[in-house]
Amino acid sequence: MTRGMGGHSVSNVTHHLKGLRFPAARRDLLRQARQNGAAQDIMDVLHAMPDQAFGSAADVMRAIGQAERRGDGAER
Length: 76
What we know:
Structural class: mainly alpha
Number of domains: 1
């Protein structure tokens, strides 16, 4: 996984979710990231996550890690 300001590390993804209230569905994550100016690679990571409700930021981070391990759009 690419890391750093231009990559899509977990911290970069969660940075684009600032202001999100939990629980949140994947569509809520996508909407918040878009409002926060997320680049397409961040949106791709969020689209690769399961379509489910997330109870906390920790749940989101866990799902990002799982998507990355599966290679579901989280790797470039």
